Amino acid sequence: MKVVKTIILIGEKRLFTSSIEKRANKKKFSQSYKPDKCEHKLEKDKLRNQVEELARKLQEKEAEMESLKSPVQYLLKKEKLQESKKIEMKKGQFNNMNLRDKQNK
């Protein structure tokens, strides 16, 4: 009976020791793969700079689009005016034709 208890105690002690070792190894492993604060800060700064660069490029493109917008709007207005003048001329010609037809009758 004493031998069995001793084996059980030794087994429990081994389990306890091995679980402590596992936790210690796990902690060492996780610490070895964690970037330190300097690396993290450098990466964060790099990403911030990339975002700022993309935002600046976007603003430039928006300004470029805005500068193109007004000439295009001007050309569209001009085209609409020409189209409306053509329509008015056709209406006038049609009205003149109707007046001539009435006068000829």
Describe this structure in words.
- With 105 residues, this protein is mainly α.
- It has 2 helices and no strands.
- The protein has helices at 2-33, 37-104.
- The chain is rod-shaped.
- The termini are far apart.
- Mean pLDDT is 74; it is low at 3-7.
Q: Strand tally, please? A: 0
Mean pLDDT: 74
Share in β-strands: under 5%
What is the rounded distance between the termini?
137 Å
Low-confidence stretches: 3-7
The class by helix and strand makeup works out as mainly alpha
The biggest beta sheet reads: none
Instruction: From the alpha carbons, calculate the radius of gyration and give it in angstroms.
Output: 43 Å
Helical content (DSSP H or I, runs of 4+): over 70%
List the helices and strands and how they pair.
Elements: H1 2-33, H2 37-104
Entry keywords:
single chain, 105 residues, mainly alpha, 2 helices, coiled coil
